[in-house]
Design a protein that fits this description.
By secondary structure, the chain is of the alpha+beta class. The chain contains seven helices and 20 strands. It folds into four domains: about 30 residues; about 100 residues, Thrombin, subunit H (Beta Barrel); about 100 residues, Beta Barrel (Thrombin, subunit H), CATH 2.40.10; about 90 residues, Roll (Pdz3 Domain). The strands form four sheets. A six-stranded antiparallel beta barrel has the order 1-2-3-6-5-4. It has a six-stranded antiparallel beta barrel with strand order 7-8-9-12-11-10. Strands 14, 15, 16, 17, 18 and 19 form a six-stranded antiparallel sheet that branches. The model has no long low-confidence stretch (mean pLDDT about 85).
Length: about 350
């Protein structure tokens, strides 16, 4: 028994320990290896390339209904306008988030997956206020982008942009989160962008901005550039906003926002509380019916202080049409409470 233990059992134990040590060392080496390959391998399968085609008319006459049939009979009067972009698979049953400007007016949309397979897609709905669109492919069991969960990203965290720059196919660029809540970037009152210095180029629009673990930070949408190329200032729609818009489009075909019918501008009141100046009221709108007039100062809405225009805009937008908005107003040094019934934000088109 002693000889058996010495010549069989002991070497077996030593061999097992050596093998375990090698596995641990290899695992440690992989974890210590610099780079973000693991994050990319998690996120990239959920990022797609999008190629859209729009038929445009060469002659202005083709826009006139009486001449439309003639133009269709002679294809030479038509030309194809191609655009490219990216998208992010957000549901395994075929729903993909992208930018509205990537698919707007498209007559055909081709989606290419990370494995180079292609299929057509249809537009489910768009939201011009956030430049987001939801398209759907006829496929199931697709890889879905990981979500952040409760963890809050910070300025300085690593950010990876994955997309289809210049139609080259899946590409990754690395940077950091430069800032949050960038506003006044577009004409939309709902601007709330993540700023990043990860290189974003034409074709990246609609692609994913992910963190060091491959979780979705936002949907890449535009750059600030004087040269037309990436200059280290890119913008992404935060994931929580993009996913909320997606859910509404899937459920209702559109995004429903509350509407007050009032134009506000930040303007401090000398010696008084902070508020927003009413510079315009839509005739017949909810604010007009509630008694608001140009020159009033809004101090709060539903007890949310009106010391930030975009915070107040969110309160109004998130109000369900038909719900009550309690507005604290100051007019000529007199405070009063106005009650408005939220309407539905009209379609800008």
């Amino acid at each position: 028994m002693t000889q058996l233990t010495r010549f069989i059992f002991v070497p077996a134990v030593i061999g097992a320990l050596v093998g375990l040590a090698i596995i641990i060392l290899n695992s440690t080496a992989d974890n210590d290896r610099p780079g973000y390959a693991n994050a990319v391998s998690r996120a990239a399968p959920a990022v797609v390339n999008i190629f859209s085609t729009k038929i445009t008319q060469r002659s202005p006459l083709c826009r006139i209904p009486a001449y439309r049939a003639l133009c269709e009979a002679f294809p030479g009067q038509q030309q194809l306008q191609n655009s490219l972009g990216s998208g992010v698979i957000v549901r395994a049953d075929g729903y993909v988030l992208t930018n509205q400007h990537v698919v707007e007016g498209a007559d055909e949309i081709i989606v290419m997956f990370a494995n180079n397979q292609t299929t057509t897609a249809e537009v489910i709905g768009t939201d011009s206020h956030t430049d987001l669109a939801v398209i759907k492919v006829a496929a199931t069991g697709l890889p879905v982008i990981a979500e952040l969960g409760d963890e809050q990203p910070r300025v300085g965290d690593v950010a990876l942009a994955i997309g289809n720059p210049f139609g080259l196919g899946h590409s990754v660029s690395q940077g950091i989160i430069s800032a949050f809540s960038r506003t006044l970037i577009t004409n939309s009152p709902y601007d709330d962008f993540i700023q990043t210095d990860a290189a974003i180029s034409p074709g990246n629009s609609g692609g994913a901005l992910v963190d060091h673990e491959g979780r979705l930070l936002g949907i890449n949408t535009m750059i600030y550039s004087q040269s037309g190329g990436s200059e280290g200032i890119g913008f992404a729609i935060p994931a929580n906003i993009a996913l909320s818009v997606m859910e509404q489009i899937v459920q209702s075909g559109r995004v429903i926002r509350g509407w007050l019918g009032v134009n506000l501008r930040p303007q401090p009141m000398p010696g008084g509380p902070s508020g927003l100046l009413v510079i315009g009221v839509n005739p017949g709108g909810p604010a007009f019916t509630a008694g608001l007039r140009p020159g009033d100062h809004v101090l709060s809405i539903n007890q949310v202080p009106a010391n930030n225009l975009y915070r107040v805009t969110d309160v109004i937008a998130n109000a369900k049409p038909g719900s009550q908005l309690n507005i604290e107003v100051m007019r000529e040094q007199q405070r009063f409470l106005a009650t408005a019934v939220a309407g539905e934000l009209p379609d800008p088109s």
